[in-house]
Amino acid sequence: MGLRSPTAVIMKLDIPFVRQQFPAFDDAHRVAGHAFDAAAGSFPCRQSIDALTDFYANCKVQPGNPYPVSEIGQARMQASKRQWAAALNVAEHELGFGPSTTQNIYVLANAFREWLQPGDEVIVTNQDHESNTGAMRRAVVAAGAHIVEWQVEPDTGLLNTENLPALFNARTRLICVPHSSNITGTRNDIPLIVKLAKAHGAFSLVDGVSYVPHDIPDVGALGADIYLFSLYKVFSVHQGVMVIREGLLAQLPKQGHFFKETLDVAERMVPAGPDHAQVGAAGAVLDYIQALAAHHNMSSDIGQACRDVSGLWHAHENAIIKPLFDYLTTRQNIRLLGARTVDADRCPLLALDVKDVDPEVLAQQLCTANILCSAGHFYAPRILAAVGIEPDKGVLRLSMAHYNDAADISALIAALDQLT
Ligand SMILES: Cc1ncc(COP(=O)(O)O)c(C=O)c1O
Fold first, then answer.
1. What is the pLDDT of residues 42-64, one digit of tens each?
2. Which of 182, 232, 238 to mutate to test the pocket of ligand 1 (most atoms within 8 A of CB)?
3. Contact in structure between 128 and 152 (CB atoms under 8 Å)
4. Which CATH number fits domain 52-285: 3.40.640.10, 3.40.50.11540, 2.40.50.100, 3.20.20.450?
C-alpha cells in the first residue's frame, strides 16, 4: 500500500477550513505569496502557536516542582509525550523530544559508537539528508566497524530494493534509511527493509523528516527500531521526535547523566535539558489533526485520526500536483529527480535541474514572482553527486503541504513557463 488513502467514504479535504487553522493565511499576517518551501519548514497551525504562547504566559517555570504552576507545566509536557506516543502507536517511554533530528541522531551515533564492535557493519545510503548519515559514518569508523553504502540509481536518485539483500550479512548490526528523501520525495519500502534487517538480526533506523508532514505513520506497525522526525515541518514547534523501541533502548549505552535510571528515551538518549515550553506545546498539532478528523466526520481515536487525515492530505496533495507533473513532461530542458509521475508513494516535493540555469538565480526570480521556494543541495550533497549534479550548483526545490491549493500550482506553472 502507498501513503494512506481515506478508509471511510471518499471525501475532499476542506481547504478553507484548513487555512483557517493557520495564521499564515490570515489577512492580518498573510504570507504574501504561494508557499513552496514546506520541506524546509512548514507554517505552524494556530493550535501550536496558542499552546506555545499559553505555556510562556501561564506556566513558564521549572516544571515538576511541588507548586501548582510548576505541576501544570509538567502535566503539559507529559501530555505531549502521551499524545504523540498514541499517535505513533508506541509506548510513552519509547518516545522523547530533542532539539532537532540532527541533534537526536548525533546522540544516537555516539551511543552506537560505544555499542558497535570492531568488524561489525552498518548500512547507510547516499540518498539521505546528511544528518542521517554523517555522524553515524564517523561513529562507525571510530568503533572499528565498517560502512556499507546502499547507493541510489544514477538516473533517478531512487533506491532499488533489489540491490539491498546482497548488502546484509551476519556482521550487519544496523541499517539507516530515509522514509522518503528530501530530494526525490519518494517513499522507501520500510516494511521490506525492516524485514530484511530483522532476518539478519540487525536494527533499523528510519529518518521520517521528509515523510511525516504527509503521513503520520503507525510506527508500531512499521516495525523500525528507531524512528525520527522534526515537528517544525509538521505544523508545530521546533523539536525533534525520537522513537526508540524498548528492545534496542535497553541495549544502547545511556547518553544521559549516570543517575538517570529509568528506561525512557527522554532520560537515556536526550542529554540536553528539555525546552519545556516547546515540549509542552508539541502535542497541540495533534489537536489540529483531531479537529480536522472531526470536521470530516472521521475517527476521534488519535491514532486512527492520524491515519484518516493523512489519507485526506495525500489525496488532496496528489490531486493538486498532477497538473504540475503533466506540465513538466512537456519540458525537455527540465530534469525532475525521482519518480516522474504522481503516484501513491510520492510526497509532494520536486527537485528540478533546469538546463543551463543557475537554480539559485531561478529561485530568486520565482520568489520575486511570489512563488516562495529555495535552491541548493538541501544538506543532501551525496545524492546530487550520485545523479550527476554538482552539489555546489544544487537544484531548485518546490515542496508543498496539504494547505497548498490548485491556485498555487497554477501560479507556479505560469511562473516556470515564463522564467525557464
Ligand atoms: C530528510 C531530513 N532529515 C533530517 C533533517 C534534519 O532535521 P533537523 O533540522 O530537525 O535537524 C532534515 C532537515 O531538513 C531533512 O530534510
1. 999 999 999 999 999 999 999 99
2. 182
3. no
4. 3.40.640.10
